[in-house]
Amino acid sequence: MIELQHISKWVTIGGIRTFILKDINMSIKEGEFISIMGPSGSGKSSLLNIFGMLDEQSEGEYFFLDQAVHTLKEKHRAQLYKQHIGFVFQAYHLIDELTVYENIETPLIYQNIKSSERQAIVADALDRFNIVGKKDLFPTQLSGGQQQLVGIARALVAKPKLLLADEPTGNLNSKQGEEIMALFRELNTKDGVTIVQVTHSEKNAAYGKRIINLLDGRIESETKN
User: Fold this and answer.
1) Model confidence over 158-198: pLDDT tens digits?
2) What global pTM score does this model have?
3) 139-158 average pLDDT score
4) Rounded Cα gap, residues 122 and 158, in angstroms
5) pLDDT, position 32
6) What domains, with CATH codes, occur in the chain?
7) Residue 181 and residue 204: Cα distance in Å, rounded?
8) Rounded to whole angstroms, how far apart are CA atoms 175 and 183?
9) Contacts (Cβ under 8 Å, ≥6 apart) of 35
10) How far is the C-alpha of 118 from the C-alpha of 86, rounded, in Å?
11) What pLDDT score was predicted for residue 164?
């Protein structure tokens, strides 16, 4: 599903190149569950953003579903992202001007799904995450944990092939966190969704079938569960 070849990412400040990622080579098969760990500043979120086509590498080649992403124009990359990738952000990234219902519905609008069908899909998502009573509220009226649940519902509503999660339980209490991780496992094993999560939690990382440790922008080690 994903193939990274010699991916590097850097910023240039005052003529000096500072590497965020350095020479990353990685393959991810469809149906895998990968956990990426490492200290702050090791490049975890940058790597996730490259997977999700929210950021571009400075060097190297990225293949997604046999398409050479590094050669695509921005419009085509956006189409790939909207069609196949769901993203759960640590900072939620909900749209403040939209209600919970409208936030969850947004990915379906991008996919040109008919209004009646969208209503049914969003109703299922609201039910699944026990947030039916919140559907007409705005993100600022929700707790952090509730906003994260809405963010996850939005990421999953269009049935993505790839789910990217950046510290998905970071703002949840332990019970909610366990429920989300159990949901991720179910999505992976029953629905075949490929999942890549960035986490500081060893407990959450253990849900992955492979754990990749980053240090200073490089892959330091890889273990299989």
Assistant:
1) 889 999 999 988 878 888 888 889 989 998 999 899 999 99
2) 0.91
3) 90
4) 10
5) 97
6) 2-224 (3.40.50.300)
7) 7
8) 12
9) 197, 198, 199, 204, 205, 206, 207, 208, 210, 211, 212
10) 17
11) 96
- Return contacts of 178-181, CB within 8 angstroms, 24+ apart: 180/148, 180/149, 180/152, 181/207
26 within 8 A of 44, measured Cβ to Cβ: no
Give dist(CA 164, CA 168) in Å, integer: 9
Token pair of 200, please? 């500081």
Q: Which DSSP category does 103 fall into?
A: H
pLDDT at 176: 82
Q: What is the pLDDT of residues 42-76, one digit of tens each?
A: 999 999 999 999 999 999 999 999 999 999 999 99
Q: Which long-range contacts (CB under 8 A, 24 or more apart) does 93-98 make?
A: 93/151, 94/139, 94/147, 94/150, 94/151, 94/154, 95/139, 96/138, 96/139, 96/140, 97/138, 98/138, 98/139
Q: Whole-angstrom distance between the N-terminal and C-terminal Cα of the chain?
A: 20
Helix 100-110 and helix 115-128, axial crossing angle in degrees, nearest 10: 130
DSSP assignment string, 130-158: T-GGGTTS-GGGS-HHHHHHHHHHHHHTT
- Confidence grade of residue 89 (pLDDT, cut at 50, 70, 90): confident
Per-residue DSSP letter, 47 = H
